[in-house]
Amino acid sequence: MALPKEYVIMMRELLGEEAEAFLASYGEPKRTAIRLNGLKNQADDPSEGSDLVEKDKPSAGRTFVQGRDPVPWAEGAYYTEETERPGKHPYYYAGLYYIQEPSAMLPAELLDPQPGQRVLDLCAAPGGKSTQLAAKLRGTGLLVTNDLATERTKALAENIERAGVGGAVVANESPAKLAAAFGAAFDRVLVDAPCSGEGMFRKDEDMVRQWDAKAPARYAAMQDEIMREAAKLVAPGGRLVYSTCTFSPVENEGTIARFLAAHPDFDVVTTEWPAEWGFAPGRPEWLTPEEAAALGPDRAARLAGTIRLWPHRVRGEGHFAALLERAGPLDRTASDTGEESAPAPAEVAERPKAIEKASGGASFKDAKRGKRTATDRRGGEAAGRGRSPGSRDGSGGDVDTMARYEAFVQESLPGWKPPGWIRIKGDHAYAVSELAGGLEGTAPRARRLAARQGDQASIRAFPSARHGSQA
Ligand SMILES: C[S@@+](CC[C@H](N)C(=O)[O-])C[C@H]1O[C@@H](n2cnc3c(N)ncnc32)[C@H](O)[C@@H]1O
C-alpha cells in the first residue's frame, strides 16, 4: 500500500525502532469481524438474559459464529475472513449481527453502560457503537444516538431499527443543541470523534487519499469543540469515552490533555487488560510542551491510562480510546440493576434537575400530574376525539394514524401497554421511553426540534414496539 510520504516520516519519528514492525503491518490483511446482536440472539429461556455465548442451545446467530475465533475484548464478537461477505447474508438483514472492525468494538466495552442508565452516543453514525451500547442496555434505560450529518443519520436510524433497539432516540443535531436541551443528564457519553482516520488506511484506501499533513490539526480543533459540549452532558459521577481511529498525538493524548486542562472535574480512569491482547498505553511524552504545561506533570502522567491499539500489536486496526470520569456521586434515577421497567410519568419524581431545567419545568409538572398531550397517550386511551380524521395533532402527529393505531391495539393486542408514551410520526406509531422525557412531550424546545424536521428526521424516537400504518 502506498502511504503518504509525510505520514511515513511522522510515524518513524514517533515510533523509532518500532516503526518497521508498524509499517510492515500495512502488508498484512485488514482485520474483519462481526458482533452478535444480543437483543436478537435470545436463548430459548428468556430468564437467561443476553449472556448468550455461553449457552448450549445456539440461536441462528450463534450457529453462524460456531468455530470462529472470538474477539477477546468484545462481548459476542467473532473474527471473519477478509474474503467473506457477511453483509450479503439474510442474518445481517435480520439484524442478528453487525459487521464491525474489531478495534472499533473497544470504546463501547470501555464505556460499559449498565442496564437502566441514560447513554448518549454523540457522533454515532452509522451506528456500530450505538448498536453495541444498546445491546448492553438490554432494552432498559435510554440511548440517545446522534450525528451531525443528516445523510449519515438516516443510515444510523436504519441500523438502530434493524438491530431491534428499543428505548432509543435518534437525533441529528449539533452537540451544543443537545447540551442545551439535556444538560448533564447522561450516566455514560461516547464521543467517537471525527478524525484523520490514519488507523483505517488498511481498511479503507480512500482515507489514505484524503489524508494530508494538516488534517490532524484540523480535526483536533473539531474534537475540542465536540468535547467541550460533551462535558456538559455528563452527569456528576458519569463516564465519558473519547475514541478515534487515528494515531496522531494531537488528536489523541493532545485532545484529552486540552480537555482535562479545561475541565478539572474530569480525570482519566485507568483500566487493565490481559497482556496477550496487545493493548498499549497512551503516550504522555507525545504532548506538545504547551499541552503538557497547561495540564501539569501529575495529570499529564495520567494519560498513560488511555489506550492505543496498534495494528502490529493487536488483531485489529488502529484505534485510541480514553475513559474519563466526572467527579461527584452518580445520581441514578433508574435502578442500578435496571431490571425494573421504566417509571410511568407520574412516578418520575427523581428526574435529574438538568432535564427539568431544560424542559422549562412546567411540562415536567404536567407529567408528574399525569397530564398528557395529544401525542402523549398510552395504548387504549381515546385519540383525536372531536377532530377530523387526518388532522394534525400538537406535535405533527396524525390523529387518524393514532386512531388506527389504537384500534389495532384494542383489536389485536387487548390489554397490552406500550413500554412508553406513543408518538405518531407519519404513518408510524412510536413508543417513546419515559426516560426521554426531557426530549419528547416535556421539553418545549426539543419538541420544536422534532416538529420542524419535515421529512428530514431531526429527532426520531425509536420504539420498543413499532407498528406500521396497517395499525
Ligand atoms: C468515526 S465516525 C462515527 C462512527 C460511529 N461511532 C460508529 O461506530 O458507527 C464520526 C462521526 O462524527 C460525525 N460528526 C462530525 N462532526 C460532528 C459534530 N460536530 N457533532 C456530532 N457528530 C459529528 C460524523 O458525521 C461521523 O459520522
UniProtKB/TrEMBL annotation:
One of its GO terms (biological process) is RNA methylation. The active site is at C245. SUPFAM superfamilies: S-adenosyl-L-methionine-dependent methyltransferases (SSF53335). The keyword Cytoplasm applies. S-adenosyl-L-methionine binds at C123, A124, A125, P126, G127, G128, K129, D147, D192. Transmembrane segments: none annotated. It comes from the Bacteria. Keywords: Cytoplasm, Methyltransferase, RNA-binding, S-adenosyl-L-methionine, Transferase. Residues 39-68, 331-399, 452-471 are annotated as: Disordered. Belongs to the class I-like SAM-binding methyltransferase superfamily. RsmB/NOP family. This is rRNA cytosine-C5-methyltransferase.
